[in-house]
Amino acid sequence: GLAVSALPIQDKIVVPPDLVVTVLLPGLVFEAAYRLDGSELRRTFGGVALLAVPGVLVTAAVVAFVLHAATGLPVNEAFLVGAIVSATDPVAVVSTMRRLDAPKRLVTLVDAESLFNDGTAALAFVVAVAALGSNPPTLGANVVQFAVALLASVVIGAVSGFLISRVLKTTSDHLIELTLTVLAAY
Question: How far is residue 80's CA from residue 83's CA, in Å, rounded to a whole number?
């Protein structure tokens, strides 16, 4: 990024939001999900879901309110900024907790909450971008769109994860394993 900024480029470089959501994010989220301990996640799921979904949405809404009140930025645009900054990234915290042999349940809670935060923030981002369109949906339609996308994401992830894990158990070829895990991420 630093090298590109030093180049004398006259044209404006535009990165479409779909690029981030469909190309960059799945690999990052998949890697984090792959490392989670399933049994610990099941034990901490209620706390993770409570912290991740309402926590991110409330944070995005508070950021939107403050930006709107302080700067006059339109609410839709302020919520987009809120969606962008609302997810936490506790990589250093989780790394330190693992090094200090913190209880596995606590490490899983923080790691899984961060992962679910990313998913919630990504969905909030997509809904916020849609709200900026030429024909923005109503608040109720946004809530329904978010809920449907969240449910569909969970179902698709669970089904594809189950199927790919079953196929992975039948092979020891590392190229097939790599291909299937990349396929599962996207």
Answer: 5
pLDDT for 114-149, tens place per residue? 888 887 888 888 888 888 877 766 777 777 877 888
Q: Which tokens go with 97?
A: 């907790």
Residues 6+ apart with CB under 8 A from 42: none
Distance CA 88, CA 90 (A): 6
Of 100, 101, 144, 94, give the one whose Cα is nearest residue 115: 94
pTM, two decimals, is 0.67
DSSP per-residue codes, 127-165: HHHHHTSSSPPPHHHHHHHHHHHHHHHHHHHHHHHHHHH
